[in-house]
Request: fold
Amino acid sequence: MTYNIKNVIVSGASGNLGPSIVKALLDSGKFTVSVLTRTSSSSTFPQGVKVVKTEYNPEALVAALKGQDAVVCTIGDFNSQGQIIDAAVKAGVQRFIPSDFGGNTQNENFVRLFPGAAGKVAQSKTLAEKAKAHPGFSWTSILCGSFFDWSLQTGFLGYDLKAHTALIYEKGDVKFATTNLADIGLAVVGVLLHPTETANRFVYIASVEATQNEILAALEKATGPPKWTVTKTTIAEGQKIGGEKLAKGDFSGLMPIIASASFDPNSQSEFSSFTKLDNDLLGIPHQTLDQLVANVLKA
Reply:
């Protein structure tokens, strides 16, 4: 199939990841960029972005996506994403990038430890079926591990940048992929600029692959003495604490659930251990762990 991707629309453009994707698309100068929002949304977006407001029903979504060559979805609501996928097929969209940004959803152990990933797995199967039934439609899922800069800044990875404390799972020696938000944006641009090479497959990226201990060492090096205070925990404890919080409706439980799933040695979170990273194809710059940590601390 010959692709001609010029018009790109982003759903979920005001979330944690969406703004970085919109910025990368605009900065590339290669695309006409739109964002898809609900009619009730009051979110604002950068100059040069067309805002398409719609109700989330089949007819309205098809109309909203008409003329779009690619859809990038970053929303966590898989029911809504399913509606967008159906509408994209009917509207003649060429490429769909789903909200699969994160850990290794192709690994059964990761999905077992992080049940929330099951929605991503189901959506991947739906996309594959749609692409098979509709030759003009295609998809690419971007697996990037945790959001490195965002996770350090928010404590999601277990490091407290102000208190200089670290929560380390098990021995802290399992490597995992993690990617800056800006690099994920570059990956989206790279996929759309290389549609043939990325059609109907998972692409794997990482700003860095490192262990918890290596990140801690880089943080200690950047912040200087004294050494950080370290607390040890286990995969089982992370699962237990996270599960108990989620059962009470406390979504902070997602942090230990996702962390423990990512740090489990059977989750294949070090993508380069089983496949070639797509960094070069997609234009992800090479940076050292020390450089990445320094940039986060300066932000």
Q: What stands out?
A: The longest strand covers residues 32-38.
